[in-house]
Amino acid sequence: MTTNGETRTEPPAKKSFLARLISITPGQLLAVFFLCVLAGLILAVFNVDPATLWVDFFGAVGEAWQRFFEIIADSLGWAVQYFFLGAVLVIPIWIVWRIIRAASGRSD
User: What is the spatial distance between Cα 62 and Cα 52, in angstroms, rounded to a whole number?
Assistant: First the structure.
């Protein structure tokens, strides 16, 4: 079709639902592969066994949440321990530094 010297082409026909559903690119397959590996690594951190997940989904999810909270509690315990260990050194130095700066007449 020509209008004022321009050539128009018809837009390509829209693919059917089934055609869109089954048309998968290699990039999409690669993305799904890496997402599966990432999900597997995350589940392995929480000691989730694929067979247990398949047989007893809610029990496995409950155990994973329990493991998650154990990891959080252990991490917080570790952080608090090292916070106090560092505070034994840092707080006295910080107080001396504040006294020296205040005595010199400079403010923060």
Answer: 12
Q: What is the 8-class DSSP label of residue 106?
A: -
Within-domain flag for 91: yes
pLDDT tens track for 55-108: 888 988 898 899 999 999 999 999 999 999 999 999 999 999 999 988 887 766
Specify the number of domains making up the chain. 1
Six-digit token string for 80: 């608090």
φ/ψ (deg, to 5) at 7? -100, 125
Residue 54 CA to residue 23 CA, distance in Å, equals 29
Residue 62, in any domain of the structure? yes
Is the four-CA dihedral 35, 39, 45, 47 of positive or negative sign?
negative
Q: Is 57 domain-assigned?
A: yes
pTM for this structure? 0.50
Q: Determine, yes or no, domain membership for 77.
A: yes
